[in-house]
Automatic annotation (TrEMBL):
Localisation: Cytoplasm
Alphabetized Gene3D superfamilies for the sequence: Medium-chain alcohol dehydrogenases, catalytic domain, NAD(P)-binding Rossmann-like Domain
Protein name: Zinc-type alcohol dehydrogenase-like protein
Any GO CC annotation of this UniProt entry: cytoplasm
Alphabetized UniProt keyword annotations: Cytoplasm, Metal-binding, NADP, Oxidoreductase, RNA-binding, Zinc
Cited SMART domains: PKS_ER
Gene Ontology terms, MF aspect: oxidoreductase activity; RNA binding; zinc ion binding
Domain Enoyl reductase (ER): 22-344
Record organism: Paenibacillus elgii
UniProt cross-references to InterPro entries, sorted A to Z: ADH-like_N, ADH_Zn_typ-1, ER, GroES-like_sf, NAD(P)-bd_dom_sf, Quin_OxRdtase/zeta-crystal_CS, Zinc-ADH_QOR/CCCR
Family designation: Belongs to the zinc-containing alcohol dehydrogenase family. Quinone oxidoreductase subfamily.
Subunit structure of this chain's protein: Homotetramer.
Main localization (coarse): cytoplasm
Length: 347
C-alpha cells in the first residue's frame, strides 16, 4: 500500500447496532483530489450530530463501498480546485459539508468552498468543529425561515423546544442577540443549568403542557416557536402556545417521529399560523442560487465568536478520531441525553 496516497477514515458497510464493533470501522481509503470549486481539507476535528445517527440507521444494506458519515469539520486547506476563489492552502476553515457527498469522518475531505467559512481565530479546531451544522440550522431557522429581524425585537418572544441540544445551544444565543425574550425547554437539572448559562430568560419542561408553565411567567402566547425535537409530539402544545398569526419552524421530519396517522395541521388553522421547515442541507443538496449564503453566515458567526458575543457549544472532547471513539459518541447521541456538542479531534 502506498500510504502517501491513502488516508484514514471511519465508515460502515451496513447498518448494525452501535454496540456492534463492526457498526463503524477504521479504514484506509484513497486520498481524493479537488476539482472545480472544491477544497481538499486536512480534517483536524469533527463533531457528531443526530443526522449522523439517522443516516447510519438508513444504511441498512450491504454495500461494496463504505458509507462515510459526518457533517461537521474544522481543519486546514490542503489543496484548492481550479475554480476556487475564496480560500488558499493553509487557511483554517470550518463547515458542515453536504449530505449528498461523503462525510467528514476522514483524514482528508472534499467540500465546495461556497459552504465553507473562515475558522474563528479565537477557537481551536475542536471548539470550531462543534459549531457549523447546528449554527447554520439555528441561523437559517431564525432569520431565513422564521424571518426574525437580527434586531428590533423588543416585546417579542420565542420558545425554543430542545434548547440544551446542539442547535438549541446556538439558537438561544442568537435569539438573545436579536433582542428576543427567550424561553427554552429542558427536562433535567443539568440541561436546565446549561440553557440558563447560554442566556435563556425562562425555562419550561417540554414533558409537561406548555401554556400553564408560560402563564407562570406572565406569558400568554409566544410570537415564534423553534421546535428542535419531535414535531408531532409537540404540535398540540405548540398550537396552544403560539400567538395568532405567529410563526413555527421545525427541523424534525414527521417520518422520524414515533407516531402513526396524519400530522394534524388544522390545529394551526384558526390562528393563521405560519409553519415552515428548516433543513440546512437544502442549499448544498440542490445547489441553490444562494448557496454562498452558508459561507457568508459562517464568516459572520466567526466574527461574533471572536468578538465575544457568541460562544462555542462544545461540551465533551474525545481523542483520537477513530471508530471506537466515534461509536461511543454515536451511543451518547442515541441515548438522547447529550448536552451541547461532542467533538472528536486528531486522527
Amino acid at each position: 500500500m502506498n500510504t502517501s496516497q491513502k488516508m484514514k477514515a471511519i465508515g460502515a458497510y451496513r447498518y448494525l447496532p452501535i454496540s456492534d464493533p463492526e457498526s463503524l470501522l477504521d479504514l484506509h481509503l484513497d486520498k481524493p483530489e479537488p476539482t472545480g470549486s472544491d477544497l481538499l481539507v486536512n480534517v483536524k476535528a469533527i463533531s457528531v450530530n443526530p443526522a449522523d445517527v439517522g443516516v447510519r440507521e438508513k444504511h441498512n444494506y450491504e454495500a461494496e463501498s463504505p458509507k462515510i458519515l459526518g457533517w461537521d469539520a474544522a481543519g486546514i486547506v490542503e489543496q484548492v480546485g481550479p475554480d476556487c476563489q475564496l480560500f488558499k492552502p493553509g487557511d483554517k476553515v470550518y463547515y458542515a459539508g453536504s449530505v449528498a457527498r461523503p462525510g467528514t469522518n476522514s483524514e482528508f475531505h472534499l467540500v465546495d468552498e461556497r459552504i465553507v467559512g473562515k475558522m474563528p481565530r479565537s477557537l481551536d479546531f475542536a471548539a470550531a468543529a462543534a459549531l457549523p451544522l447546528t449554527s447554520i440550522t439555528a441561523w437559517e431557522g431564525l432569520f431565513d425561515r422564521l424571518g426574525i429581524s437580527p434586531n428590533a425585537n423588543e416585546n417579542k418572544s420565542i420558545l425554543i423546544i430542545g434548547a440544551a441540544g446542539g442547535v438549541g445551544s446556538v439558537a438561544v444565543q442568537l435569539a438573545k442577540l436579536a433582542g428576543l425574550t427567550v424561553i427554552g425547554t429542558a427536562s433535567r437539572p443539568e440541561s436546565t443549568q446549561w440553557v440558563k448559562r447560554l442566556g435563556a430568560d425562562f425555562i419550561i419542561n417540554h414533558n409537561n403542557p406548555f401554556q400553564p408553565q408560560l402563564k407562570e411567567f406572565g406569558i400568554d402566547t409566544v410570537d415564534y416557536i423553534f421546535c428542535l425535537n419531535d414535531t408531532v409530539q409537540h404540535l398540540a402544545n405548540m398550537s396552544e402556545a403560539i400567538t395568532p398569526q405567529g410563526k413555527i419552524c421545525c427541523i424534525v421530519p414527521t417520518d422520524k417521529a414515533s407516531w402513526s396517522g396524519s400530522l394534524k395541521m388544522d390545529l394551526l388553522f384558526a390562528k393563521s399560523v405560519t409553519f415552515v421547515w428548516e433543513f440546512m442541507f437544502t442549499r448544498s443538496l440542490f445547489h441553490t442560487e444562494d448557496m454562498m449564503k452558508q459561507h457568508e453566515l459562517l464568516n459572520d458567526l466567526a466574527d461574533l465568536i471572536d468578538d465575544g458575543k457568541l460562544k462555542t457549544t462544545l461540551n465533551e472532547r474525545l481523542e483520537p478520531i477513530n471508530a471506537a471513539n466515534l461509536r461511543l459518541a454515536h451511543e451518547k447521541l442515541e441515548n438522547g441525553r447529550s448536552i451541547g456538542k461532542i467533538v472528536l479531534e486528531n486522527f
